[in-house]
Amino acid sequence: MTEQKLYDLLSKFDLEADPKGVKVVPYGGGHINSTFLVDTDPKYILQKINTHVFPYPVELMRNIELVTEHLTKKMVAAGEDASMGTYRVVKAKDGNNHIKDDDGSFYRVITFIDAVSHEKVDDPTELYRAAKVYGKFQKMLSDFDANELFEVIPMFHHTPNRMKNLLKAIEKNKSGRLDSVKADVEFALSYKDRISAVVDGIADGTIPLRVTHNDTKLNNFLFEKDGDECVCLIDLDTVMPGSLLYDYGDALRVGASSAAEDETDLSKVNFCLEPFEQFTKGLLESFAGDITERELALLPYSHLLMTFEVGIRFLTDYLDGDVYFKTAYAEHNIDRARNQFKLVRDIDERMDELNALVKKIYNEVK
Ligand code: ADP
Ligand code: GN1
Ligand code: MG
Questions:
Q1: Average pLDDT per run of 10 along the chain, which is 366 residues long?
Q2: CA-CA distance, 360 to 123, in Å (whole number)?
Q3: CB atoms within 10 A of CB 329
Q4: Which ligand is nearest to the CA of 249?
Q5: Residue of the nearest CA to atom 8 in ligand 1?
Q6: Dihedral sign, CA of 232, 240, 28, 220?
Q7: pLDDT tens digits along 297-343
């Protein structure tokens, strides 16, 4: 984007500072939107919304505005600093919460939170602090009317449907890469009868639908730059009715791994017990009085399930020709899939131990 175009774009938003000549640099490690840091005083985040992934950006932005306003109100009422606890959507000068560019692209500006995300866990107790932030996020949204929310991506965490998409991708083999991933496909298919417990529980009422985040990977939590505290949960694009199990499992798939999601040396990719224990403790301290028996029983399973689900999504995208997740090189998606499958193997081997550990933690905190 030229400097002039960037200036024209930013000028359409109601910023506190004149963006003329300001530095705008790509920022963060997200796989979906294009994110830029706008280095004015105060700083902002500019994002081009990925409309291939989010085909209803207007509805999506309404969701985010409703949710962030709700969170802000709750924090202000509790006397807390809401500017660190969530971001706010910056209005455009025409009163909208986004700008639609001449070429049809959608842009939003949100307030910058002066904290950083981690691509992999440095200290297991980070996960305890992240779980506390998650628990608080969930609690603040517990009285939010889920009917207000547009379902931005239907069946987002419906793992059996994700499996159907994989089967379609195998059949079409659009990228012509199928032959090179036979072993990965075989591994994925070997799980096909073990992936419906959460959707079944939602259907039979043993797992309640809550307003959940649905994308709680570690780099969507922000931590203090110079301290240890977890500050807030960002990336609210996928806040929708869902299961607590989705958020728990998704947070642990990166949070309880010894390596980043795209580490290619699989000997470095191992399930780590301590962050698992820390996140579970933090979560159960927040939810022990509220979690259902079925949810509790499925916590370790959901860690396996969410890791598997993202694994098959990366594999599907590799077969489809890399049309969904941003990739930095040709094999990126398959490297990510193999990384997640390595974790699935690890977690699966330790299921009994993890089930026993969750019960123990629950009995200690309830
Ligand atoms: P994506 O949907 O592509 O993952 P995110 O909204 O998660 O996009 O943004 C990508 C990264 O940018 C985040 O992981 C985080 O590091 C950074 N980021 C996003 N929003 C903010 C914000 N409001 N304040 C500070 N950092 C942010
Ligand atoms: C995407 O947006 P980001 O990078 O935080 C994806 C998640 C995946 C994750 C895998 C909307 O998350 O579902 O778990 O990549 N978000 C969407 O890293 O598909
Ligand atoms: Mg993100």
A1: 87 95 93 96 97 98 98 97 96 97 95 95 96 96 94 97 98 98 98 98 96 96 95 97 97 97 98 98 95 98 98 99 98 98 98 98 96
A2: 22
A3: 9
A4: 2
A5: 30
A6: positive
A7: 999 999 999 999 999 999 999 999 999 999 999 999 999 999 999 99
Rounded distance from Cα 63 to ligand 2 centre (Å):
18
**What does residue 25 show for φ and ψ, rounded to 5 degrees?**
-125, 145
Q: Which ligand is nearest to the CA of 52?
A: 2
Helix (H) or strand (E) holding 139: helix 125-140
Choose the CATH number for 124-365 among 3.90.1200.10, 3.90.480.20, 3.40.50.150, 3.40.50.720: 3.90.1200.10
What superfamily does domain 3-114 belong to in CATH? Answer: Phosphorylase Kinase; domain 1 (3.30.200.20)
Ligand with smallest separation from the Cα of 29: 1
Residues having CB closer than 6 A to ligand 1 are: 27-33, 35, 45, 87, 110, 112-113, 117, 219-220, 234-235, 237
User: What is the position in ligand 2's atom list of the atom closest to the CA of 314?
Assistant: 10
